[in-house]
Specification:
Layout: E1 26-30, H1 36-44, E2 49-53, H2 57-61, H3 73-94, E3 98-104, H4 105-116, H5 125-133, E4 138-143, H6 146-157, H7 161-179, E5 185-189, H8 190-195, H9 197-207, H10 246-258, E6 273-276
Parallel strand pairs: 1-3, 1-4, 2-3, 4-5
Antiparallel strand pairs: 5-6
Helix pairs in contact: 3-4, 6-7, 7-10
């Protein structure tokens, strides 16, 4: 995304050409500047997990490595992306780890442009992405208070107030869509993750057939995070920095209320994680 601070460079490809492909087990999704990097780092700190930090997102989902002009740019991007992820998942499985990737709604925003270029555009991008290409995977979606998220986008990504609010509203669309997704999904709030990390990480581990590991809490200082993101622990002040200009708050007020964020407060009116289906493994089995 132009203006976004770069993620750490992608890890080099593993040596060897004969590793089998495997389906990634999970995806961490949320708004850019919305807590995805923290959540990915916490999961990556589990000894049995490996998380890609937007692996293949720019090259495939944003189309930078795909020749333009095809009749199905959306499906070409998604199929190329998923194939690349299967290579990473297979390599991790060969080393005894479960692999998943982290993407943001900035890439979803880019996919919407590709959808509109299709010769016969599918009616709903989110359905194609989450219930089609990623249906076999646990989706873990993290939502951050729009006042804080939009403010961070303006400060660090150089977006205008209107642009930052619009991008956060796309994350709300995803949040609401995933609440109804008939495949394994966990929706949580960034503010709750800061306040009660073990409580929110435990059900994610359970969906992947794992127990919570205390080593996950050290992920706040992971070297896989950009230096300015690293912390010795959980910085609760990040949940209260909500001084978005009043005109921005007006733009997203309805979305804030629908997402349960109390007026004038940095915490949500309701908290915890929404898990769908609650007792299913991280497979494509419907509720």
């Amino acid at each position: 995304m132009p203006g976004d601070p770069a993620e750490p460079p992608e890890a080099p490809e593993r040596p060897g050409l004969a590793l089998p492909l495997a389906t990634p087990r999970f995806h961490v999704v949320g708004a850019g500047r919305g807590g995805t990097s923290l959540l990915a780092a916490l999961l990556d700190a589990h000894p049995a997990l490996e998380v890609g930090f937007e692996r293949h997102a720019v090259s495939c989902l944003m189309g930078e490595a795909i020749a333009p002009g095809g009749p199905q740019p959306l499906h070409q991007r998604l199929s190329t992306y998923l194939h690349a992820c299967r290579g990473d998942a297979g390599a991790a499985a060969a080393e005894g780890r479960i692999w998943g990737n982290k993407i943001t709604t900035e890439q979803v925003y880019a996919l919407e442009a590709a959808r509109q270029q299709e010769s016969a555009p599918p009616p709903d991008l989110l359905d194609v992405l989450f219930n089609g290409y990623l249906k076999d995977q646990l989706i873990v979606f993290v939502l951050r208070d729009g006042r804080s998220c939009a403010l961070s986008k303006m400060r660090r990504a150089g977006l205008t107030l209107a642009e930052a609010c619009e991008r956060w509203q796309l994350s709300v669309r995803c949040w609401e869509f995933l609440q109804r997704r008939p495949f394994p999904t966990i929706c949580l709030r960034f503010e709750d993750l800061l306040a009660r990390p073990q409580e929110l990480l435990t059900p994610i581990c359970a969906q992947l057939g794992l127990a919570f590991d205390p080593a996950m809490l050290a992920g706040t200082g992971s070297e896989r995070l950009l230096p300015e993101y690293r912390r010795d622990g959980f910085d609760l002040s990040r949940a209260t920095d909500i001084d978005l200009p009043a005109e921005g708050v007006a733009l997203i007020a309805d979305d804030l209320r629908r997402c349960g964020y109390a007026d004038g407060a940095g915490a949500a009116a309701t908290s915890g994680a929404t898990i769908r289906p609650e007792s299913s493994p991280a497979t494509s089995a419907a509720e």
